[in-house]
Design a protein that fits this description.
single chain; 292 residues; alpha/beta; 9-stranded parallel β-sheet; 41% helix; binds 3-hydroxy-3-methylglutaryl-coenzyme A; binds magnesium ion
Amino acid sequence: MPMVVRDPALPERVTIYEVGPRDGLQNESAIVPLAAKAEFIARLVAAGLPIVEATSFVHPRWVPQLAAAAELVAQLPLDGPTPLPVLVPNERGLDRALEAGCTHIAIFGSATETFAQKNLNSTLDGQFAMFEPVVARAREAGLDVRAYVSMCFGDPWEGAVPIEQVVAAGSRLLDLGASQLSLGDTIGVGTAAHVGALIDGFGAAGVGVERLAMHFHDTYGQALANAHAALRHGITTFDASAGGLGGCPYAESATGNLATEDLVWMLTGLGIYHGVDLAALVETSVWMAGVL
Ligand code: HMG
Ligand code: MG
């Protein structure tokens, strides 16, 4: 383990939001058997990950890797202490998630017109209309709702994405009633000062760091540097994927997520509490690499 040298300017504890079973497996060419998916999630929970995104209730033709979502969820301890959120794009997805007994969902919007089209078959404006009844009905049913914004730092079709455009999209998702906003660098093009500027942009619009999470992809090796920059801006929730699995099948050049192991190593060295057993996590990722 790294020597612990605490930086008093950084937060004392961080929540790692594990996305391996969803963002990781959705981008693998292999379809992982149901039992192995359930075991993956159970092992991540046992390794101390405080929240593990389990799967997606999207159209099975769009993401065949996660098709048997209800069958998977039926095998999970939904009433346990670790929330196991699922992605839900529309009311059909919400119906399926409610039927399966899910207690935490995540909607996923885009900051750009092109990606809304490619990922959701919707316009940018249309996505909010699609999410509105989802969030309202989910909240009414007592579910927790997280919201992702994709393409926060750049878009493979549109190029650089202005900070105001990201803040506008994110604020609209929060206004619908989401409890937390996860800012996605879907294609991994962001760099450290850009991260700070985006967080400041949300702050100027009245969205504090306590409502934000950061979701980095490691395409250009920037994910950990960006996470450090976000820590310096007071962010305390980070998405990460065991073994660095992942990407997005609808975003050209989206490669692996920030590896949970790398994040845990850095946080440990900085003396920031995270609650994850690194050895158990590494064993889990090595085992999943074998499955794949
Ligand atoms: P669509 O084709 O426009 O759907 O897809 P539709 O509303 O026109 O419905 C067509 C048919 O699909 C209907 O069936 C619906 O019932 C069915 P039919 O009447 O023809 O028999 N349908 C569904 N079936 C099951 N589950 C559903 C569902 N919805 C409709 N939920 C849709 C629109 C949103 C469904 C589609 O675009 C979709 O599933 N997209 C998901 C794409 C996806 O999962 N992408 C990856 C996740 S996002 C990501 O990775 C980024 C993130 O990690 C953050 C970051 O890195 O930036 C989160
Ligand atoms: Mg992602």
